[in-house]
């Protein structure tokens, strides 16, 4: 089974995403901020990561840049998730190594489409 780490400071977003991803047969873990996510990735690198942009302690962008420097850190498909409708922020995330992005709020169809595409990659 594929694994996914949901990194978001919103417990509601994590709960909704977890339900959808588990229905897609992902083994799901959660982190509230980038530092907790880095700690979890050091223990076991997931196949995919749903990553929030704005978080306390370590932002999504800081996490992504750090993740990609670790051995095996290039492996996970990272879907960057933001409320920002800022092309510059999206460009920064993609340049830092995000595989794809989506806007909040998202629904089941959008999340499934992003993670089905990443399965094929």
Low-pLDDT residue intervals, each spanning 5 or more residues: none
* Strand order of the biggest β-sheet: 2-1-3-4-5
Q: What value does the average pLDDT take?
A: 92
Percent helix, as a range, is 40-55%
Largest sheet data: 5 strands, parallel
Following the backbone from N to C, one meets helices and strands in this order, namely EHEHEHEHEH
Shape: globular
Q: List how many beta strands DSSP finds.
A: 5
The number of helical runs is 5
Question: What percentage of the residues does DSSP assign to strands (E)?
Answer: 15-25%
Alpha carbon gyration radius: 13 Å
Structural class: alpha/beta
State the end-to-end CA separation: 16 Å
Pfam families: Response_reg
Protein name: Response regulator
Keywords: Phosphoprotein
Modified residues (4-aspartylphosphate): 52
Give a written overview of the molecule.
The protein has 121 residues and is an alpha/beta fold. Helix content is 45%, strand content 21%. The protein has helices at 11-23, 34-43, 60-67, 87-96, 108-120; strands at 3-7, 27-31, 48-52, 77-82, 100-103. It has a five-stranded parallel sheet, with helices on both faces. The longest helix has 13 residues, at 11-23. It is globular. It starts with a strand and ends with a helix.
């Amino acid at each position: 089974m594929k694994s996914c780490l949901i990194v978001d400071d919103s417990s509601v977003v994590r709960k909704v995403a977890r339900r959808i991803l588990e229905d897609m047969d992902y083994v799901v873990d959660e982190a509230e901020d980038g530092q907790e996510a880095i700690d979890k990735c050091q223990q076991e690198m997931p196949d995919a990561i749903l990553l929030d942009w704005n978080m306390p302690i370590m932002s999504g962008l800081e996490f992504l840049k750090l993740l990609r420097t670790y051995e095996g850190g290039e492996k996970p498909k990272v879907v960057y998730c933001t409320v920002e409708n800022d092309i510059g922020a999206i460009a920064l995330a993609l340049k830092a190594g995000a595989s794809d992005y989506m806007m909040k709020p998202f629904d089941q169809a959008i999340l499934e489409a992003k993670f089905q595409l990443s399965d094929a990659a």
